[in-house]
Amino acid sequence: MDAKTCDDLYKVVGEDFWLATHCNSTAFEGKKLEGTRITLVERERGLEFAIRTPCIPSRWEDFDAEMKNAWEALCNAYCGEKYGSTDFSALENVRDAILRMAYYWYNFMPLSRGTAAVGFTVLLGLLLAANMEFAENIPPGVQVDWEAILNSDPNTFADAVKSWLYPSLKVTTSWKDYPDVSSTFATTGSVVAALSSYDD
Fold first, then answer.
1. Residue 84 falls within a domain, yes or no?
2. Total structural domains in the chain?
3. Distance from C-alpha of 189 to C-alpha of 47, rounded to nearest angstrom
4. Mind listing the pLDDT tens digit for each residue in 131-190?
5. What's the domain range around 87?
6. Do 156 and 117 sit in the same domain of this protein?
7. Within 10 A of 89 (CB to CB), how many other CB atoms are there?
8. What pTM was estimated for this model as a whole?
9. Same domain (yes/no): 78, 43
10. Rounded to whole angstroms, how far apart are CA atoms 51 and 150?
């Protein structure tokens, strides 16, 4: 408990080690999913502190079920009278469902490099599709993925994030004025060119 650095911690344990976070399932009552493995490994040039995600079939199946369940909850929250709503208070369950989906995305993680950025982009896209735009920045010192990784429950994660996210949301339908992607980028080549960081 007194360790202040990775070196201090390694000396106490005395060998390479990892621990796994866990996530409470909402799809299966009482089930705990293996989240992210936090590792401390001795290397030639010093210690490596890293996160790793086990890519085992059972973990993929568990998170696939959670993501499907979270998506269905989001669709159900936005069905009926709430569809297309611009009443911020009426969209509370939609916002919560989006955060739940983001929580499981962040804890699954082995999807690709940059998954945290992709996860936040998807979160913002889902909010925008439900007529809510995040008009600020993530607060200094906050990493949304770590908020998810270090909370074992999606509701605890949501409580931590909504304190700064929700006040920064504004209701808007401006996205309806944006050009249609498929007509703006009609070919695969035009999509690749748009995503390319190379200048002519």
1. yes
2. 2
3. 43
4. 999 989 999 999 998 899 999 999 999 999 999 999 999 998 877 787 888 888 889 888
5. 57-177
6. yes
7. 6
8. 0.82
9. no
10. 12
